[in-house]
Amino acid sequence: MRHEAISEFKDADGKVVGMDSMTMPFPLASPELISGLEVGDRIEMQFDVRWDGDHPLEITVIEALPPGTRLAFEPPAPEEPAPALPSADPPSPSELTNDDGSAESEPPIAPDSSP
C-alpha cells in the first residue's frame, strides 16, 4: 500500500510522531475488504494499531475513492543531508521500486546521449 503522510500517527507511548508517505504492507482484518479493488485504485483506509501483537497495523475499513482523486505523496523531509552514492555503485535492485511499489528487476538504464 502506498499511502500519504499520516500527521496524527502516534507511537507506542502515545506520542504524536507522524508517519511519512511511503509504500508498506498492511495486513487486512478481512480479505473481503479488497473485494472489487484492483492494483492502482485510490482508496481511503482506516486501520487499528496494536503495539503488542504480531501485526501492529491492521486495515479495518477500505472505501474506494473516485477515479482521478489526487493524493499527496510528498517525500519525507531529510533531517540531515543524505550522503551521496558513489557514482560507480548504483543502488541495488532491492532499493528500486515502481510508482506502484513493485520492485524493479534491474537498475534503470541511462538514455543514450550519442547523436
Can you give a write-up of this model?
The chain has strands at 2-3, 22-23, 43-49, 57-64. It is an all-beta fold and 115 residues long. The chain has one domain. The strands form 2 sheets. It has a two-stranded antiparallel ribbon with strand order 1-2. Strands 3-4 form a two-stranded antiparallel sheet. Residues 88-97 and 103-108 have low confidence and may be disordered.
Helix and strand run? EEEE
Biggest beta-sheet profile: 2 strands, antiparallel
Query: In what range is the share of β-strand residues?
Result: 15-25%
Q: What class would the helix/strand composition place it in?
A: mainly beta
Strand order of the largest sheet: 1-2
Morphology call: globular
Summed up, the helix count is 0
Number of structural domains: 1
Radius of gyration of CA atoms, rounded to a whole number: 18 Å
Residue-averaged pLDDT, rounded? 76
Percent helix, as a range, is: under 10%
Please report the total strand number as a whole number: 4
User: Termini distance?
Assistant: 42 Å
Draw up the topology in text.
Blueprint: E1 2-3, E2 22-23, E3 43-49, E4 57-64
Antiparallel strand pairs: 1-2, 3-4
Short account of what is shown:
With 115 residues, this protein is mostly beta strands. It has one domain.
